[in-house]
Specification:
Length: 251
Amino acid sequence: MLRPRSIRGVRPYAPEDVHWRLAEYYGPVHWERRLDPIAELVGTILSQHTSDLNSGRAFKAMVERFGAWEAVLQADVGELTDVIRHGGLAVQKAPRIQAVLREVLERRSELNIDFLKELPIVEAKAWLKSLPGVGPKTAAVVLSFALGVPAFPVDTHIFRVAGRLGLIGPKVSADEAHDVLEEAIAPELVYPMHVYLITHGRQVCKAQRPRCTSCPLSERCPSMGLYASAVKPSATRAKIGRTMHGGALAR
């Protein structure tokens, strides 16, 4: 059970309280699959160390050029590199994508990893992380966004917000934060909590000049006032009433 750390004598909100306050602030969030698991896996590899825009362009170009994952696997690595060049680090990502697809095919005799949904989450994550170049974040993204498994992807926004709120300790690494946050909240709240924290990090609890005066968590935020804010209090609260998909948010 996660106990939020006290900072400067302030008792932070419990994870469940953070969830419900942000739910009231941003509105409802609904899980909806965007990509199948293999596509999510390849897309997440493409998204590493680049923007959503660039990785999206590279993913689209790859799908249009090859049409099937078997064709991506069998393609000349130089050609694949050229096709995904918009995604950045293409020289590293092209062979990594092919290595992952090859490993999946060898283990499963097909390019399909839907079986992971039926495994205990610890086993599913371990299986994915045993693939070449797949770390905790990529594994969590695939499980959460493609399979609806309550895994908790942690990006820079979530890591920052969780640290400021005292949900993770100062010595917890980004890789460790996946498990810490995942275990801190009920499974049915994991996905919306992920979406709320990443959205809050982008809109309010920014890396520089966070909008503390507009934050629904400021009353018991241990980091309140530690960062200069040049943004005036917002007269309106952003509402996210539409269906959101975390895959795009987490990359």
